Amino acid sequence: MILTFISHGFLAAHIGTFNNLWYVFLSAARFDPAHPIPADHVSQQLPFRFNGGLGLPPPKIGLALSIIGVIGITLQMLLYPPLSAKLGTTRSFRLSLLLFPMTYLAVPYLAVMPSTTTPPNPASGAVVWIALAFILMVYTAGRTFALPGAAILVNNCCPHPSVLGTLHGLAQSVSSGVRTIGPIVGGWVLGQGMRMGIVGIAFWALALLASAGAVAGCFVRNGDGHEIILEGEEVEEVEVHTK
C-alpha cells in the first residue's frame, strides 16, 4: 500500500507540474537575439544552453491543448482496452511510466525547432507543429495508461474493503498535496532557468522526477483488495459456499 502511494504521488506530482509548465512554455516569448534574456545570452547554444518559449497567442494555445484531448479520447477508446487486457494492469502501468521522462526531456527543444516566422512573432510552420503533436502524442499515451492504472492499483492495494473509502481519501490527499507543491516549485525553477538562459532546466528536472516515479512503479503490485481476513469472515464465506 505504501509503495503504491509513493508511485501514485510521483505520478500526480510530475503530471500536475507539467500541465502548468506547459501553458507557460507555450506562451513564453521566443528567444530574440535583438533583445536577449539574459543580456549576455546572445545566441542559442545546443544541446543545453538555449532559451525562450513558443510565443503562441491564446487561440494557438487552445489548438495545442485540443490536440491532447483528441489524442486522449482516441487512445482511451481504441488502444487502452485491448492493450490493457493483453498486458495486464501492472505491466501496462509500468510501461506507461517510461514515456514521461522521454516527453519531458524533449519538450524544451520545441523552442529551437525551425520556424517559418522570426522572433518575436509566434513560432509557426509544419516542423514546429509536427514536433509538438508528436510530443503530445507520447505524453498523452503515457497519461492514458498511467492514470486509470494508478486508480485500479490504489483500489486493489486496499487491505480490507471496510477501509476502502479511507484509502481513497488518503490517495486523494497525497495527490492534492503534490499537485499543490509541484507547480509552485516547477514554476520557480522554470523562472530561474530562463533568467540563466536555460529554459530546459525545469523540464529536465521533471524528467528526473518522472524517472524516479518509473523506478517506484517497478515495486508496485496488483493486490486483490482484500489482503486481510478478519475474524469470522472465513466462516461466513464457508457458509455462503455451502448454501
Features:
single chain, 243 residues, mainly alpha, Growth Hormone, Chain: A, 0% strand, elongated
The gross shape turns out to be elongated
What's the helix count? 8
CATH architecture: Up-down Bundle
Write down the CATH topology. Growth Hormone, Chain: A
Secondary structure category: mainly alpha
Question: Uncertain segments of ≥5 residues (pLDDT<50)?
Answer: 235-243
Number of strands: 0
How helix-rich are the residues, as a percent range? 55-70%
Content of β-strand: under 5%
What is the number of independent domains? Answer: 1
CATH superfamily: MFS general substrate transporter like domains
Determine Rg (CA atoms, Å).
Answer: 22 Å
| Main β-sheet description | none
The sequence of SSEs as H and E is HHHHHHHH
Supply the CATH class.
Mainly Alpha
The residue-averaged pLDDT reads 87
Termini Cα gap: 34 Å
Provide an overview of this structure.
By secondary structure, this protein is mostly helical. It has one domain: Growth Hormone, Chain: A (Up-down Bundle). Helices cover 67% and strands 0% of the residues. The chain has eight helices and no strands. Helix 2 packs across helix 5 and helix 4 (99-106) runs antiparallel to helix 5 (126-156). The relative contact order is 0.20. Residues 235-243 have low confidence and may be disordered.
Give the helices and strands, then pairings:
Layout: H1 2-27, H2 58-87, H3 89-97, H4 99-106, H5 126-156, H6 164-196, H7 201-217, H8 233-242
Helix pairs in contact: 1-5, 1-6, 1-7, 2-3, 2-5, 3-5, 3-7, 4-5, 4-7, 6-7
